[in-house]
Amino acid sequence: MMAAAALATFQLAAVFTPVVAEEFPTRPVSLVVPWPAGGAYDLAARLMAEYAPEAMSQPLVVTNVTGAAGSTGVRHVADAAPDGYTVGMMGTHAIAQSYMNPNATPLDELEPLVFIGPEPASLAVGDDTGIESIEEYLELLRDMPGGIVNGNDSPGGFSYIAASMLENRFDVDLTKIPYQGYAPTVSALLSGEVMSVTLPIPLLADQHAAGAVRLLGVAAEERHPFAPDVPTFKEQGFDFIAEDFFMLYLPQGVPEARRDRLEQLFYELLNDDGFLQEASELGLVITPMARAATESYLNQRSREVHAILEESGLLSD
């Protein structure tokens, strides 16, 4: 155990500059979540906030700034004072909106900080639909184009993109109904307002276990640890991957010393054993990456998302 701790300390020392000229932070740091309370982003942020006072010696205050498929929250962070006291959480939505919406925040106004982890989509149906498999789901759509009403977020949000990817990949048509955030989308599925959803598994695992919804498959390379009984699309003979991600970022212009200090503090928090254990219990997959790797990931993912949007007909000429 002591050897493992020593190794982790050595690895962190190799990644981060250990000396910072000023004491920072000296007051609470705001973490802006661009979606309503109750979703996966919010779960991750609030768990981080529980560990922040010990990891950062200051509180981490979670603020939900919602609207416009996540764009409002991203704009809020980009416009914040570049003093290191405002940090944002983002994923695929920020990339998509930067391409789809001329009024959205360009990515070059944001400074990548730390990668948190991936978030694969799953396909779930209401228990009363009678649909038992992905094959039956696709057969129904082929027989009745638009015959399945799917709940998702607004165009540019990840679950909307995942639903569009599914349509494009399997040459089918859904009737897509947008909701403001994941929590109301889950409620719509439970009430029968929609027949299916394309959402992260942690939001649906309890309802699946209780028999209230049926998880048909996870769009990832491997099964999700939170619902190991749910097979991947690939296991069922369908080549389909749709993953979102979590990362932290800053507005451009934060002083280098403060940026580096935040990178170190958040990276250490995300690698804390207690945090990782609780995150796993919530169904969150945490695979932290430092700033350089995060920036590289964002650049690659931006190219992939642009191709997906173009292929799905979500980009205007």
Question: How would you characterize this protein structure?
Answer:
Pfam families: TctC (PF03401). The protein is an alpha/beta fold and 317 residues long. It folds into two domains: 2-118 and 244-311, D-Maltodextrin-Binding Protein, domain 2 (3-Layer(aba) Sandwich), CATH 3.40.190.150; 119-236, Periplasmic binding protein-like II (D-Maltodextrin-Binding Protein, domain 2), CATH 3.40.190. The chain is 41% helix and 19% strand. The chain contains eleven helices and nine strands. Strands 1, 2, 3, 4, 5, 6, 7, 8 and 9 form a nine-stranded mixed sheet that branches. Helix 2 packs across helix 9 and helix 4 packs across helix 11. The relative contact order is 0.19. Mean pLDDT is 91; it is low at 1-10 and 17-21.
| Domains, number | 2
CATH class category of the largest domain: Alpha Beta
SSE order, one letter for each helix or strand: HEHEHEHEHEHEHEHEEHHH
User: What global shape is seen?
Assistant: globular
CATH topology of the largest domain: D-Maltodextrin-Binding Protein, domain 2
**What structural class results from the helix and strand content?**
alpha/beta
Strand content: 15-25%
Task: Calculate Rg over CA atoms.
Answer: 20 Å
Helical residue percent band: 40-55%
> Main β-sheet, in a few words?
9 strands, mixed
- Tell me the number of strands: 9
